[in-house]
């Protein structure tokens, strides 16, 4: 028996499209609908059977849905929640996949939505339905961020959905999420943008694999990431930690402290190995 009768995905791009493909493949709902503002993308999704139903009207897209997934940039998620409040059934579960959680959770609680915040730690610097892929979430971590107001039955259903997509589910508060992810995701993106901007254009032809590897995520979408940075002020604290580390490296280089530099680099190597 399917987990849901009808699921609607608003934002059928990289993450939303990948969700759609796996949900359909695993038959987790009877009908899968997608909301599209772009007619070309709507037709493509229907033609390629990524969704069963394509809608360009928001009210029509979420009609009779027991789960609505918001796979949009942060500010669009927040704006869409206000629209959904006016038209969705109060029993409909609203789930997002945004990269920041605290502000979104505050808005959802204020609106009284039957909302469960989630963040799949999967994806790439690319965007759009053309880059969606089956099994994107296999063995990935997915963070669920309930608040005191979150319906426990809704949490269980959303948790089950992610588990059926072969993801490893972790539960954190929205505040804990934003603090941790500011270090592990948002800071690396900010560093990548800043690093490439610090290099004179005329030097870039000399960049080899090290530079390309370090700055791959600088290819990420500017609008998406500016919204993420502005909606997670915890990033300012992680930036302070980075400034401290950079200052220490500068001090060791300036004072020719070779042994201390070796210790610092080895410490970094060992921490990096622990990620594997």
Biggest sheet details = 8 strands, mixed
Please name the fourth-level CATH homologous superfamily of the largest domain.
NAD(P)-binding Rossmann-like Domain
CATH domain class name of the largest domain: Alpha Beta
The overall strand count is: 8
| Overall mean confidence score, pLDDT | 95
Overall structural class, as computed from helix and strand content, comes to alpha/beta
Instruction: State the helicity in percent bands.
Output: 40-55%
Strand content: 5-15%
| Assembly state of the chains shown | single chain
Contiguous helical run count: 11
Task: Describe the structure in your own words.
- The chain has about 280 residues and is of the alpha/beta class.
- It has 2 domains: about 170 residues, Rossmann fold (3-Layer(aba) Sandwich), CATH 3.40.50.720; about 35 residues.
- Strands 3-2-1-4-5-6-7-8 form an 8-stranded mixed sheet, sandwiched between helices.
- Helix 4 runs parallel beside helix 5 and helix 7 packs across helix 10.
- It is elongated and about 70 Å long.
Helix-strand blueprint:
Layout (H helix, E strand, L loop, with lengths): L3 E7 L3 H12 L3 E7 L3 H9 L5 E3 L2 H5 L4 E4 L3 H14 L5 E4 L5 H10 L3 E6 L20 E4 L7 H13 L3 E4 L2 H25 L10 H6 L7 H10 L3 H20 L3 H16 L3
Parallel strand pairs: 1-2, 1-4, 2-3, 4-5, 5-6, 7-8
Antiparallel strand pairs: 6-7
Helix pairs in contact: 4-5, 7-10
Short description:
The chain is of the alpha/beta class and 276 residues long. It has helices at residues 14-25, 39-47, 58-62, 74-87, 102-111, 152-164, 174-198, 209-214, 222-231, 235-254, 258-273; strands at 4-10, 29-35, 53-55, 67-70, 93-96, 115-120, 141-144, 168-171. The two termini are 37 Å apart.
